[in-house]
Design brief:
151 residues; single chain; mainly beta; four-stranded antiparallel beta sheet
Length: 151
Amino acid sequence: YGDIESNLESGAFELLDTMILKRTAGRNSSVSIADINNDGKLDMVVGNYRGGVEFFSESEDMINAVPFAEASAKAIEVFYPNPNSTGKWRMNEFLNSKELASINIYSQQGQFVPFQVSEETLELKVKKTGVYFISFLKDNQVAYQRLVLTK
């Protein structure tokens, strides 16, 4: 909508476009907003009915949308098995102490999820089924992975 500030009393806003990014996320989409990459700006994760996930990150002058698997330079599955029902994931690659210290996990609502990590495993302290998003450093770049906890 346009002319919002000048028409607050009348409520007569001009429809500019119904699609902000000229794309649709699909049926039954759900949005979660948090500062996932710790840059001080809000990021957005959009999931849809089919299980697709997109990561939107704010840059200086625009919003960039990338498929979640491409959000990191390394599209790898570090934590496995995924999905799982135990809330414990093994790591298929060694993460050094700096990379282990960089791990953050968020719920679909953007809330920080407590966890415990060792050299070989990562365990969620919350055992609620759902999709969780993990960010961590890998080769000095922020990497992301979706973790799915089932019944």
